[in-house]
Structures are given as C-alpha cells and as structure tokens.
Design goal:
The protein is built from eight helices and no strands. By secondary structure, it is mostly helical. Helix 3 (about 35-60) packs across helix 6 and helix 4 (about 70-95) packs across helix 5 (about 110-125). It is elongated and about 55 Å long. It has helices at about 5-20, 20-35, 35-60, 70-95, 110-125, 125-140, 145-180, 185-205.
C-alpha cells in the first residue's frame, strides 16, 4: 500500500470511530458505572474486534459465513453480560449509595469481563462487518497488503482509538464526577442501565 492509500485508510477509520453507535454508548455507560478503567477496557475490546475483521478482509476470508455460529454464541454471551451490567446499574438506582461513595475497586476479573463484552460489539455489528468486508476492499487492493503496511494500519487504528476512547471516556468520567458531586449518582445509574439494556437488546434482536 502507498502512503496515499494509508492516508485514505486513516480517514475511513476516523469516520468509523467517530460515528456514534451502540459501542460508543456502551463504552460511555461502562465509564459512568465503573470508572475510566472499565471504559478503556471496553474500548480495547471493540478495537480487538475491529482488528479481527480487518485481518479477515486482508487474508481473503471474506466468506465470513463460516463465523456465523461462533458469532451467534459470542453475541448471546455478550448480551447476557450486558444485561447483568444493566441489572447492577439499575440496583444502584433503586438503592442509591451515599454521597461520596467511591468507584468500586478495579479487579482483573472485572476488567477481563468488560474487555470480552467489548469484543462482542464489532463481531456482531453490521456496521463494522460491512465496513471491513465490503467498503475497504472496494477502495483498497487488500491483496497487496504487506506485513509492514498491515502493521501501519494497526498503528493507525491504535492512534484513532487513543484519540476517540480518550475523548469519550474522559468526558464521561468528568460527567460522572459532576453527577456525584451534586448527588445525582442514582440517575447516572439509571441512564447506564438503560443504555446497557438497549445495547443488549440490539445484540439479541438484529
């Protein structure tokens, strides 16, 4: 790939990551519920799924129907965990914590669960699948991608992730601090529960 092609790829990834969608909404909701570490972990899961579809497109495995059964299992598991997250957040709304309550402790198990749920989003998201398996091949000759250009594409995706995840998670964390300061934590929990519930239903119904 030429520098011009990589620049076009960067522009396409910028638009993909910037476009609002259930993944971004869930990342914000997870930040409000459990703090920025979980928001970043969720975003890393989304990035991992995006890299998977990019690799599938480059390696010529666009007959992605072979992944249908696996994607169905991943989608169902991710939706179940999202529903569990939503239930916990809804409990926070029903039984609000006292003002000044700290963010729950970050654990490796909790971060791993958030990361795995994040992976389910692009694996079952039609927007990501169409983008990597249909849109990119229409604009780039992916059969000409070398290990060096593949690494450059991954680096571009990582840079865009840092830009947008930093913005989404940072703003959500500031909003969370604002809500906590004014005693609105339970309403933030309700908003989180509704977003998580909506994303879970999207995964199950489409």
């Amino acid at each position: 790939m030429t520098l011009h092609s990589l620049a076009l790829f960067a522009g396409a990834i910028f638009v993909l990551f910037m476009t609002p969608g259930p993944g971004n909404a869930a990342m914000i909701a997870r930040t409000l519920d459990r703090g920025p570490a979980h928001g970043v972990a969720y975003g890393l899961g989304i990035l991992t799924g995006d890299i998977f579809w990019l690799t599938v497109a480059i390696t010529g495995l666009s007959a992605a129907s072979q992944f249908d059964s696996l994607a169905l299992i991943i989608k169902f598991a991710g939706a179940c965990v999202l529903l569990w997250f939503a239930w916990n957040a809804f409990n926070g709304f029903l039984k609000p914590k006292p003002a000044g309550a700290p963010i729950p402790a970050v654990t490796k198990r909790g971060l791993a669960a958030t990361y795995l749920v994040g992976i389910t989003m692009p694996l079952s998201n039609p927007k990501a699948i169409v983008f990597y398996l249909s849109f990119l091949p229409a604009f780039f000759d992916l059969s000409q991608v070398t290990p060096v250009s593949y690494a450059a594409m991954i680096a571009i995706m990582l840079a865009m992730f840092v830009l947008f995840a930093g913005a989404y998670v940072g703003l959500a964390h500031r909003a969370r601090d604002f809500l906590l300061t004014r005693g609105f934590r339970r309403w933030a929990d309700l908003a989180t529960a509704l977003v998580m519930l909506g994303v879970a239903l999207l995964l199950l119904l489409r």
